[in-house]
Amino acid sequence: MSMVIDFGTSRLRISTAPGADIVSEASVLARREDDTLVVGDEALKMVGRTPPSVEIVWPVVGGAIKDSQAAVLLLQKLVAKRFTRGLGLRMPITMALPAGLTSVERRGLEEVARAAGAKQVQFVDALVAAALGAGLAVDAPQGALVVDLGAGSTQVGLLSMRGVVSSQRLPQGMMAIDYEVVEAIRRDQGFAVGLQSVQQVKHQLGEDGLETFRLIGRNLATGLPGEVEVKREMFEAPLISYCDQIVEFIRSTIETCPPELVGDIMDHGAVLVGGGANSALIRREIESRVEVPVAVAENPDDAVVLGLEKMTEYSSHNWRNKAKSFLRTS
């Protein structure tokens, strides 16, 4: 048995085998002055509600480890929810490796796993894992275009024959949009609103015809709670700007695509994975502005960890040569 881990900016996903329950919890921890910890979804409930004595830490920023100590504690605590006495981390571990990480950032990810107790760590390109999880035949001699719309980073990759032919990465994702909207409401309307309130509205865009949304927050002028009416364009503007960058990434990736693979992309189009793929507005914007078909993975949020699970399935069937071609052993 082995363990697979997708350590994302907003969610940490862990599994042990195809068909097993996926442990998916927020990549956040709350640390009190007495060093007691609350992690995962329980810590997420505390965001924006804590006194100064409680520190909220997001260990991963832009897809890279920024607080290694917090990352180790978060990983250990969440693994302990399923495995007693740290047995889980003693398994061989396969982790998703975001495209475009520097050697230092990659080493930081490996060191976190080893500090948490892992004895063996292997990496799989996150784009390859996402494609596998989305059901694409990445081991076939044909091109596959994958767009990973994560919370902390955005990746566009052209895949073929189990490898990444070309890729681009933006160290920003859906979470940056949330912060941008929160700051715009604070600046333009004098109200402090929570990230989770903004996220709820963001996911509604494109699914209804509402032109304004009412959010509960704090009036910065009076210091009292109240409601603020926010126009649709305040949410749409940063999302459309984000789509501009995605579309440009797709175009430039196709431009660098070998001629033999261009036809595959024209026929099969692009597949969206990651949390951003759930946004109807983003899907609509991309579909209307690129000249290839656009589809959404059946389970876009878990595509990466599902792909990692398939790697363990290959190994369990003694397809070691096939599995080895995906892996980067450390």
Task: Give a quick summary of the entry.
The chain is α+β, with helices and mostly antiparallel strands. It has helices spanning 40-44, 68-80, 103-115, 126-133, 174-189, 195-204, 232-255, 259-268, 280-289, 303-316, 320-324; strands spanning 3-7, 11-15, 23-26, 29-32, 37-39, 54-57, 60-61, 64-65, 93-97, 121-125, 144-149, 154-160, 163-170, 191-193, 212-219, 225-231, 270-273, 294-296, 327-329.
Which features does this protein show?
330 residues, six-stranded mixed beta sheet, five-stranded mixed beta sheet, 39% helix, flat
Notes on the protein architecture:
39% of the residues lie in helices and 27% in strands. The protein is flat, with a radius of gyration of 20 Å. By secondary structure, the chain is α+β, with helices and mostly antiparallel strands. It has helices at residues 40-44, 68-80, 103-115, 126-133, 174-189, 195-204, 232-255, 259-268, 280-289, 303-316, 320-324, and strands at 3-7, 11-15, 23-26, 29-32, 37-39, 54-57, 60-61, 64-65, 93-97, 121-125, 144-149, 154-160, 163-170, 191-193, 212-219, 225-231, 270-273, 294-296, 327-329. Strand 4 and strand 5 (37-39) form a beta hairpin. The chain is built from eleven helices and 19 strands. The two termini are 19 Å apart. Helix 2 crosses helix 3 (103-115) and helix 4 (126-133) packs across helix 10. Residues 318-327 have low confidence and may be disordered. The strands form five sheets. The protein has a six-stranded mixed beta sheet with strand order 3-2-1-9-10-19, sandwiched between helices. The chain has a five-stranded mixed beta sheet with strand order 13-12-11-17-18, sandwiched between helices. It has a three-stranded antiparallel beta sheet with strand order 5-4-6.
